[in-house]
Design goal:
The protein has four helices and three strands, in the order αββααβα. It is of the alpha+beta class. The chain has a single domain, classed as GMP Synthetase, Chain A, domain 3 (2-Layer Sandwich). Strands 1-2-3 form a three-stranded mixed beta sheet. α1 crosses α3. The longest helix has 24 residues.
Length: 111
């Protein structure tokens, strides 16, 4: 069970990463990146960030670029959170495929 502190930090990270990815997507024309969920470890050292990327065709390319830019993204997050957190957690990005799975199920049910 997550503590209240973990939940608050998850929301803070999600909000800050959303604003970072808003600027990030302007460079990737035609691609939309949203932070769907953040899960942080009990010791607040590792954050697992789940991203939804639209359209699905650009998802792999965008994820590769995000993984390359992870230190830069963590640095930007550090400047935004320097007064709230003592240590900026390590970021692990994952592709959230929930929407694409729902679309696939809808297509199968239509037939």
């Amino acid at each position: 069970m997550e503590s209240t502190r973990q939940q608050k930090i998850e929301r803070l990270i999600q909000k800050d990463l959303s604003s970072i990815f808003l600027k990030y997507t302007r460079a990737l024309s035609g691609t939309l990146i949203s932070v769907s969920e953040v899960r942080i470890s009990p010791d607040l050292s590792v954050a697992h960030v789940y991203l939804s990327i639209f359209p699905d065709a650009n998802a792999n390319m965008a994820m590769e670029q995000i993984l390359v830019d992870t230190p830069k993204i963590r640095g930007e997050m550090g400047t935004l959170q320097r007064h709230q957190l003592r240590v900026i957690p390590e970021l692990h990005f994952h592709l959230d495929e929930t929407i694409s799975k729902m679309e696939r199920i809808d297509e199968l049910l239509k037939h």
